């Protein structure tokens, strides 16, 4: 048998931003803009489909403000300082805008988004309340092995929870040990229950080449559980 390996296809790509018919007034800097009015309401941020390799699209929407001449959208990565926010779009969005798409490169991240309306060259509304988005983990390798002859397994996949009865070790139809999921999932999980009265069962979860969880149980109908 050969051990399963996870491969990530790296694709060269370029993101080209389109032009706008008009350019709305923009505060010179975020720090100098005076705050007045009410922040845009109904902010939502949703994770869209993955793009090339580890590129993710996050769709941000909000309700418009009547006297806005434009909008600014920012993102915060929880791995950074609390007060560090980055602008999603280089230019202020138009007064008719009610959505923006952020393109984030990476895995296993918690992102926060917020929006505010630009009222004129020196005034803007307060920032809206923020909305959280979870970026899934990368390639996940599930492994189940042990001295027991067989086990019942339950695992999370991109399509939901799946169950199966297997002979140990967990092996693909092509004879590779372990099951590699190339579609990222947010919370990898696998459990294995010994179907016999003797022996051990071991589960293991490896994410992007790093073992994140491993457990072993022994005895009759013993259960080993791994999560990441």
Automatic annotation (TrEMBL):
Ion transport as UniProt keyword: no
BP terms from Gene Ontology: carbohydrate metabolic process
Residues making up the signal peptide according to the UniProt record: 1-21
GO CC annotation terms, alphabetical: plasma membrane
InterPro entries referenced in this protein's UniProt entry, alphabetically: Ig-like_fold, MmpS, MmpS_C
Superkingdom of this protein's organism: Bacteria
Keywords: Cell membrane, Membrane, Signal, Transmembrane, Transmembrane helix
Classification via Gene3D superfamilies: Immunoglobulins (2.60.40.10), MmpS1-5, C-terminal soluble domain (2.60.40.2880)
Protein's cellular compartments: Cell membrane
Similarity field: Belongs to the MmpS family.
Name by which UniProt lists this protein: Fibronectin type-III domain-containing protein
UniProt organism field: Cellulomonas humilata
């Amino acid at each position: 048998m050969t051990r399963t390996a996870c491969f990530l296809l790296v694709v060269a790509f370029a993101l080209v931003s389109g032009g706008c018919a008009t350019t709305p007034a923009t505060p010179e800097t975020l720090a100098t803009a005076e705050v007045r009015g009410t922040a845009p309401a109904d902010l939502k941020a949703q994770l869209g489909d993955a793009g090339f390799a580890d590129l993710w699209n996050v769709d941000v929407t909000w309700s418009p403000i009547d006297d806005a001449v434009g909008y600014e959208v920012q993102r915060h990565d929880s791995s950074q300082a609390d007060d560090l926010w980055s602008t999603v779009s280089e230019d202020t969005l138009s007064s008719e805008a009610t959505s923006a798409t952020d393109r984030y490169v990476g895995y296993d991240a918690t992102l926060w988004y917020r929006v505010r309306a630009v009222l004129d060259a020196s005034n803007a509304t307060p920032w809206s309340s923020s909305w959280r988005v979870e970026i899934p983990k990368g390639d996940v390798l599930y492994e189940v092995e042990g001295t027991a002859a067989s086990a019942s397994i339950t695992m999370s996949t991109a399509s939901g929870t799946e169950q199966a009865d297997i002979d140990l070790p967990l092996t693909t139809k092509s004879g590779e040990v372990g099951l590699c999921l190339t579609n990222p999932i947010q919370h990898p999980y696998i459990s294995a229950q010994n179907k016999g009265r003797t022996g051990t069962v071991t589960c293991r979860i490896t994410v992007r080449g790093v073992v994140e969880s491993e457990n072993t149980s022994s005895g009759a109908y013993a259960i080993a559980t791994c999560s990441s």
